[in-house]
């Protein structure tokens, strides 16, 4: 559905600063663990500000999508799911 609606090309801001910090901390810990086993160490991840991080302006919510677009999306989703159910039953 995302491909059909062109949403997969969206490169918007997805995370709050706290969410991005958590992801970066997990990434850093994973790299540190890998570096204990690898013959050549991986570089640490860049800091958020070095990456040019821009925080999400709002938490995702259907209320931020125009009602007409949302209704069309749900219609297409229901149609796709119905078609797939029909294929699985065959």
Average pLDDT taken over every residue? 83
Question: Can you tell me the residue ranges where pLDDT is under 50 for at least 5 consecutive residues?
Answer: none
| Assembly status | single chain
Radius of gyration: 20 Å
Shape assignment = elongated
Strand content: under 5%
What is the helix tally?
Answer: 3
Estimate percent helicity.
40-55%
Description of the structure:
The protein has 90 residues and is mainly α. The protein has helices at 2-5, 17-35, 67-89. It is elongated and about 50 Å long.
Write the layout of secondary structure elements.
Elements: H1 2-5, H2 17-35, H3 67-89
In a nutshell, what does this entry contain?
The chain is mainly alpha-helical and about 90 residues long. It has helices spanning about 1-5, 15-35, 65-90.
Provide the descriptors you would attach to this structure in a database record.
51% helix, mainly alpha, elongated, 90 residues, single chain, 3 helices
């Amino acid at each position: 559905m995302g491909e059909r609606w062109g949403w997969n090309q969206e490169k918007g801001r997805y995370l709050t600063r706290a969410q991005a910090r958590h992801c970066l901390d997990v990434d850093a810990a994973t790299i540190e663990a890998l570096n204990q086993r690898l013959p050549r160490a991986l570089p640490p991840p860049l800091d958020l500000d070095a990456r040019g991080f821009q925080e999400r302006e709002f938490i995702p919510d259907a209320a931020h999508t125009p009602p007409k677009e949302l209704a069309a999306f749900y219609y297409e989703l229901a149609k796709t799911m119905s078609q797939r159910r029909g294929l699985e039953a065959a």
